[in-house]
Design brief:
The protein contains 18 helices and 38 strands. The protein is of the alpha/beta class and 730 residues long. It has 4 domains: 19-101 and 251-379, FAD/NAD(P)-binding domain, CATH 3.50.50.60; 118-247 and 383-447, FAD/NAD(P)-binding domain, CATH 3.50.50.60; 459-625, no CATH class; 644-730, Arc Repressor Mutant, subunit A (Orthogonal Bundle). Helix 2 runs parallel beside helix 4, helix 6 runs parallel beside helix 7 and helix 9 runs antiparallel to helix 10.
Amino acid sequence: MTSKRITQHPVLDIPEGNNVSFTWNGNRLEGREGEMVSSALFANGVQIFGHHHKDNSPQGIFCANGQCSQCLVIADGLPVKSCMTPLREGMKVQSVEGLPKVPEDDNIPTFEDIDSQIKDVDVLIIGGGPAGLSAAIELGQLNIKTLIVDDKDRLGGKLVLQTHKFFGSVEDSHAGTRGFEIGHILEKKLAQLPSVEVWLETTAVGVFSDKVVGVVRENIKDENSGNKAYSKYIKIRPQKTLVATGAREKMLPFPGNTLPGVYGAGAFQTLVNRDLVKSSERVLIVGGGNVGIIAGYHAIQAGIEVVAVIEGLPEVGGYKVHADKLERLGVPIYTRHTVLSANGKDAVESVTIAQLDDKWKAIKGTEKTFKVDTVLIAVGLSPVNEFYLKAKEWGMDVYSAGDAQEIAEASAAMFTGKIEGIRIAKALGIYEGGIPDEWTEKAAVLKSKPGVPLSEEALSALRSYCCDKKKDSEGGSNDALDGRSVENGVMPVFHCTQEIPCNPCTSVCEEGIIKTQDDKITGLPYLTDITKCKGCMNCVAICPGLAATLVDYRKDGENPTVTLPYELWRDTVEKGQVITITDVKGNLLGDYPVERVVANKKKFPGTLLVQVKMGKDVAKKAIGIKFQKSPIESLDVPDTSALPDEAVICRCERVTAGEIRSAIRNGVRDVNQLKGINRTGMGSCGSKTCRTMVLAIFRDEGVDLKEVTERTDRPLFVEVPFGTLAGMKG
């Protein structure tokens, strides 16, 4: 089989993991010790993990986060989620064909007494992402006995998957630093706090009426059986509980939506950024929020072609600078479009999209079909808040932070974690001060929606306003402050046109001449004194949106040197190579030879500063380097006339939209009754994936959701083997 390992990356280091041997359906393969089985299979070109017992449909991954069970395999005789199971030497992995059988086992296990083992802690934090880590740091600094549990093999949560630079401010949100690096920073802070205990590979599985939380710790070593690893069920009794469990991805109903190759953007980022597996060759992304747009950028960094991003709204919902980055690289963004179908027999071979009318209906005749092997779904997130809701129901003193509290950016999650950490400390009577108003204000700003992109006229008016204020207070010339009409000296040019919480350029300017409108973190940047700029290029290198350039007229006023930020491979921009330069929207400005490449790996790792000489008529328009240069051709459109009822809603039980719609039309108003009729939501994921789509069908059928009886939650939120609950050791 052909290896799908990523062997070079412009930002990430390539790990040198120990290779181990394992078998897949009897065939010998190699993987990296400790990586998830799903990633090892993908690295070996395997994306079909089995076939469903109901209709023999091929099964692959969807979330890669332990939330669904789409990636089920048989490992050493036991059914496991491949995305949560580390690879070991000699592991025998098999596809699931039909229903898994209970393995025959004549060994007599040993058991331990689990009823007497209850761990008391002051604070239990469920989730080791940006919110959980930030809360744990606040509690640890106050010497509060805290236990943080996370189901992954490392701390950081979604930070681990983020290779892009974060927004916000340098002082408060590590703006200009890449997500995975922020994770390392928080982890190092936590390691210095002895009152905080960390349990990795530990899944919180249930919250009970006696105010006890049940968790399962993996890879516990039993000294009496040769240190053989086993899973252990442990009861925890916290005084306070913080739920920082993040979010799960939403799904869309369309034919082919469960084919291998259709999965969430988070799963894609897990494969390419955490595990460095090139999961795809060509992708189409559904969803123009930050998650989808950033996933597209990550795909290009991993050497994967992005055919397009489609968005149902008239404008992308994510930051415009993120969308601009993609368009400048050559990725088209189709707004007012939706996906009609993913096409293929055993995996995705193509995808069909269409334009939407004002009533959100596909316009016949606007269909386009593209050859792709992957469709990324990035249409929003749902909070993983079942732990919080159940703990509330049982009367526990419980708090939430991050996406479990409100869906927002990771920078906001860090602030909500800090706030809730202090709130818990106050409730314990250990902290007597108040929560700083500044924290609450910044959390609100970081959660805020991006502003409306400004036109050139509005930007000009804004620059004049800022310059007038500066002139009134300190004197000077408007032109000298604006810089747009100045064609001498050296100066940065800012191509951000939308108010978002971001100001790292103000922190790194060596001359202190970059400010934002009214000194707000959401204000657009401007120069207070253009004559003081020395051309240090720090603002270009740190900008998370790659939206700053430097124009230098000092050597040649007619053909100034323009410095452009670039985060792809250096061999594509070496000195002397001819590159295609674009404006902010990806319009071509011309081809120019590279004069010089500057890299400050210590201060701004992963960011290259590419310098070209351009005519002064286009120098201040230049911002992008085109990467994907070949146009994507549309294929013949397949028949999509029978779309609505075919789409699978319940992935686990293969229940279609038509089956659910029929039950609703026959009077069903109870999700539990729906489960009894056609097994909707009865699968192993516990309706985590299908719930929102089922409720959407009720709404689309004209049923007021107040009339719908919601599901009865299971006592356990995650599947747990009976042996683990019984205290079986190995």
